[in-house]
Specification:
The chain is an alpha/beta fold. It contains 15 helices and 15 strands. Helix 13 links the parallel strand 14 and strand 15. The protein starts with 7 loop residues before the first strand and ends with a helix.
């Protein structure tokens, strides 16, 4: 495949935590686009720099942290700030401009940040918008990697103006996002598999050093507030004992983030039972991609509150239930059911989803063997093999078209 190896490729998105989904998307895109020189624009000094230092050692990495003036974005609603106001709120604007001038192209990645609830994270969204505004004003070619769009609500016009003039088709990970792109953002869109459904083979260069878990285990990613876990401590302890006594499985808790519903939750849940343990990321500060894949591949079953836990379990062909966290309408269900549809026929979403961690436990209490066997049967089907092959082809087509269009855009400048 033609590559961007001679270009300085800029990346912007919601990079600012240890979350495996966020940094996994970014680095997978970097690998898939065959980049040799990148500039990553972040709103955090540590993240994703720590992960880039770990996984992009053979790539020239420039790192730019967008800073904002203290107490500048006090209103709490990004649509109340114009383009000029947002740029004026950047404390290191001259430095950021130098970095944007140095890139040849800008990739907007990140998954699901173009929506109404992200728009209330005013400082973060302003830092992302700063890069997009500058790239447009400097006539830099801009392209998207796979997005989840909406609901936009009262922020629809603001997002529409942010992307106005960006001449690019938006790859989207669910069908509702097609509607949002066409009707509200006035952008052309194409339904594509999530960026992490097909992990790049370069991840295989990193080998997990975790000790093998000798007993069968159910892997749980606890994306749940601590208060909820503490209120249901007795039930969590009961289900841990039940899984071991009925099905011979221990519970192994795996955080996807360090602090945001992450290591603390995993440690707490594992402390509630003698039949549970957890993956401690306190020393590494983030969940290593190779460790997460090793834990998923070794599990008898996965329960995950994180959407990308579902994506990776489906990619690894491991039985899974995803806890749909509908923090904003049907946003969670749309992306979950869509990624299941990429792997299987439409209508299979309910087999892979539950409404809460306790709902998942109750569902599996008496149906564990049945659900697991049904999902294994689906993974072993010709349809799954064909659908993953199709997803790979569509992903490769997206990458090829993205690279070629950027190269052509640069030649015409």
């Amino acid at each position: 495949m033609t590559s961007l190896q001679h270009s300085n490729v800029g990346f912007v998105g919601p990079y600012g935590s240890a979350n495996l989904g966020d940094y996994g998307i970014l680095i997978n895109d970097i690998y898939d686009l065959h980049c040799n020189h990148i500039t990553v624009f972040s709103y955090n000094y540590n993240w994703p720099k720590v992960q880039l230092d770990a996984y992009c050692t053979e790539i020239q990495v420039d790192y730019c942290v967008v800073q904002v003036k203290e107490n500048y974005f006090f209103d709490g609603a990004i649509y109340k700030y114009s383009e000029d106001a947002i740029l004026n709120g950047c404390r290191n604007l001259d430095e950021v401009i130098r970095y944007v001038k140095a890139i040849d192209v800008l990739i907007i990645s990140g998954g699901g940040w173009i929506n109404s609830f992200w728009a209330y994270r005013t400082e973060k969204i302003a830092k992302i918008a700063t890069i997009i505004y500058l790239a447009k004003s400097l006539n830099k070619p801009i392209r998207f990697m796979t997005q989840g769009l909406g609901p936009l609500g009262e922020f629809a016009e603001w997002y529409k103006s942010l992307f106005e003039g960006v001449n690019a088709t938006v790859p989207v990970r669910d069908k509702q996002s097609l509607v949002v792109a066409n009707r509200e953002l006035k952008l052309s869109a194409k339904w594509c598999p999530d960026d992490l459904l097909i992990p790049n083979q370069r991840w295989d260069n990193f080998k997990s050093v975790l000790a093998p878990i000798e007993t069968p285990y159910v892997l749980i990613e606890p994306f749940v507030p601590m208060e909820n876990l503490k209120n249901n401590a007795d039930m969590i302890g009961y289900f841990s004992r039940m899984f071991y006594e009925w099905y011979g499985c221990r519970l192994f808790y795996m955080p996807f983030d360090l602090v945001h519903f992450g290591n603390e939750q995993a440690q707490y849940c594992s402390s509630l039972s003698a039949y549970a343990d957890y993956y401690d990321i306190s020393s590494d500060l983030f969940p290593k991609f190779e460790d997460v894949l090793a834990l998923i591949n070794g599990a008898d079953f996965v329960i995950t509150g994180r959407y990308h836990g579902l994506v990776l379990a489906l990619s690894c062909a491991i039985p899974v239930i995803h806890i749909v966290n509908d923090i904003c309408g049907e946003y969670g269900a749309n992306k979950a059911y869509s990624i299941v549809e990429w792997c299987f026929a439409n209508g299979r979403g309910s087999l892979f989803c539950a409404g809460s961690l306790l709902d998942a436990f109750v569902k599996l209490e008496t149906q564990y063997k049945t659900i697991r066997a049904e999902q294994i049967g689906l993974y072993n089907s010709v349809a799954y093999t064909n659908n993953i092959t199709k997803a790979k082809a569509i992903r490769q087509s997206l990458l090829r078209d993205t690279i070629m269009s950027l190269l052509c855009a640069n030649k015409s400048r």
